Amino acid sequence: MYSNSLTQKTNTKINLAHTSTPDGYREAHQHTNSMKSDIILAGVGGQGILSIATVIGLSAMNENLEVKQAEVHGMSQRGGAVQSHLRLSSDFISSDLIPKGAADLIISVEPMEVLRYLPFLSKKGWMVTNSSPFINIPDYPDLKDVENEIKKIPNHIIIDADQIAKDLGSSRASNIVMLGAAANFIGLENQSFLEGIKQIFTRKGESIVEMNYQAFEAGQKAADSYLKDNN
Question: d(Cα 33, Cα 51) in Å, to the nearest integer?
Fold first, then answer.
């Protein structure tokens, strides 16, 4: 049911060539201590996985961290399963692939997809997932069964990012809601995320930037609320 086989690949990587960092920002955000964060992003085509990866990558580079991202693997058309490995570190990163049992964080914008990558999660790692399913197969399992499997992982957060985004007035912002929900487990400063969001959405206008700021903050609040209610 939760097969790891993906039938096609896309060769998409973070493109940072057309972004800019404010003068002095990187110099003010040097990491004095060692930092490492290995992240797996999961979902289906059309859910904004690449945008999440780009914001995280920019945020890390704004803090002078090394960034490596594996190719976004999966089916290229909308609705196909996709995943990517994203590695951040204050030290040199030798490989763009995360070994099984070593991921610090899995961010998934689709609940069943997160279960594909459980073997990659470290014992102390966190799983942050959307609860809204993207039903793209005829034998999609009962959503309650999927959620029960997720809840077996001690360190998990489940939020309804789709509904949160709709309540904000933009269903397309659900991916940034998920980024906000996972932000506290990545190891970067909030301001770095906000700057990364601004960098990739500025060309779409100030209102879009502001909407995504709100989505990020709403995701953080939803994650905090989930942890408070389930501790």
Answer: 28
Domains assigned to the chain:
34-133+143-229 (3.40.920.10)
Report the candidate in 95, 93, 115, 97 with the shortest Cα–Cα distance to residue 106. 115
pLDDT of residue 153: 94
List, in order, residues 6 or more apart from 173 with CB less than 8 Å away.
Answer: 165, 211, 212, 214, 215
**Given this model, what pLDDT does residue 12 score?**
37
Question: Where would I find the beta strands (DSSP E) of 11-139?
Answer: 36-44, 66-69, 73-74, 81-89, 103-108, 121-130
Residues of the chain short of pLDDT 50, as ranges, are 1-29, 76
Sign of CA dihedral 162, 164, 168, 174: negative
**Contact assessment for residue 137 and residue 109, using Cβ atoms and an 8 Å cutoff:** no
Tell me how many helices (H) and strands (E) the chain has.
7, 7
